[in-house]
């Protein structure tokens, strides 16, 4: 059974950093040629895509996070990461990864 687990969320002050991880089980990002996306959903808003990484490691970012967030992956650990720097209150949301299935999400709260 394919499964994703996101970790790394928490409470951080504006300007701070967090690194989220998305670990896969039941399938392999590298061997199975999956692209992986990070999404987020703020209260009262629709889920939005913010970054993705292809099987060949090409990356894309939404304008709202470009220059602040970095997506990467470690095929050996079957894990995709989202390094988030210069966090803003508007980054507060539940963050999800997707590779054909959704993880359970991890809460990120940016507040002083």
What does this structure look like?
The chain is built from no helices and ten strands. Strands 2-10-9-4-5-6 form a six-stranded mixed beta sheet, with no helix packed on it. With 112 residues, the chain is mostly beta strands. The protein is globular and about 40 Å long. The model has no long low-confidence stretch (mean pLDDT 93).
Q: What does the average pLDDT come to?
A: 93
In the predicted model, the low-confidence regions spanning at least 5 consecutive residues are none
Assembly classification: single chain
Number of helices: 0
Which radius of gyration do the C-alpha atoms yield?
A: 13 Å
User: SSE string, helix = H, strand = E?
Assistant: EEEEEEEEEE
E-strand count: 10
- Helix/strand-derived class? mainly beta
General shape: globular
Distance N terminus to C terminus?
40 Å
Main sheet overview: 6 strands, mixed
Percent helix among the residues? under 10%
Percent of sequence in beta strands: over 45%
The neighbouring-strand order within the major sheet is 2-10-9-4-5-6
């Amino acid at each position: 059974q394919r499964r994703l687990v996101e970790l790394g969320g928490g409470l951080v002050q504006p300007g701070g950093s967090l690194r989220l991880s998305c670990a896969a089980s039941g399938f392999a990002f590298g061997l199975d040629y999956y692209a992986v996306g990070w999404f987020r959903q703020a209260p009262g808003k629709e889920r939005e895509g913010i970054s993705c990484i292809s099987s060949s490691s090409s990356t894309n970012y939404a304008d709202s996070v470009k220059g602040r967030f970095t997506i990467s992956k470690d095929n050996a650990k079957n894990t995709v990461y989202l390094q988030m720097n210069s966090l803003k209150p508007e980054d507060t949301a539940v963050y999800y990864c997707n590779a054909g299935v959704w993880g359970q999400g991890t809460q990120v709260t940016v507040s002083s």
